[in-house]
Amino acid sequence: MHLSAKADAAGLPPAGEGESMLRYMDFIRSRTTLTRVPLVPEIELYQATEMTELWRATAADLEKWDDSPFWAFPWAGGQALARHVLDHPELVAGLRVADFGTGSGLVAIAASKAGASRVVAFDVDPFCEAAVRLNTAHNGVTVEFQARSPLGTELAGIDVVLAGDVFYQRDMAERFLVWGRALAGRGIRVLAGDPGRLYSPQQGVKDRGSHDVPTSTAIEDRLLMKTWVLELLPE
Question: Taking a C-beta distance cutoff of 8 angstroms, is the pair 93, 33 a contact?
C-alpha cells in the first residue's frame, strides 16, 4: 500500500501536508507515555508498552504500518550506543554527528547532550520526525531531522556516524557495512550499537565496549541483552 493510502486508512494525513506533523505529534502524545530510558535515565522518551493505546492502534487501526514501530521503543543497540556516547563525550564533543535510522531520536539526543556541535537525525518512517521533535523538545536539545536515508552518500560536513541496531536484516547490514567502511576510510568515525543480531559483522570492526541492556518482551525475546558498541574499520 502506498504511504499516503496507509495514512488515510489510519485517519492520519500523509507526511508533509499542512497540519500533518502536528497531528502525528498529537497521535504520539495520546498513545505513549514519557518514560526514562532504562540504561540512559538522563533521557526520557515518549514510549509505547503492551498496555498503551498506541500498541492497540498499531495492531489494528494502523495495521499497514510496522506493528513494532522503531520510534516507540528504546532498542538495545540504541540504548548501549547512547550510554557509550554520554560516558565518553569526547567522541562527539564539538563535532558534527549523524544518527542513522534515528527512530525515537535517542542516540541523537545523547550526542547533543554530550556536546556535539551539530546533530542530524536520519529516518524514513513518517512518524519519526514527529517523535524526534517531541523527544528533543522534552529533553531540551536541538536536533536536525532529515526524512531520508543517507546510505551511499558521502555525508559531507559530518565527522561521526552513530547507528543503533542496523544488523537485523541482511540487505540493510550489507549496505550499511559497505557504506560505513567507506566513510571510515575517509576519516569519519562510524559507531554502531549491536546486541548480536543475525547479520552482525564478525570482522572489520573493533569492540569499543559492551552493556547489559534492559529491554522489553514487547520487542525482544528476553529482558536483558548484552549489547556491544562496535567501531567500523576501513577496508
Answer: no
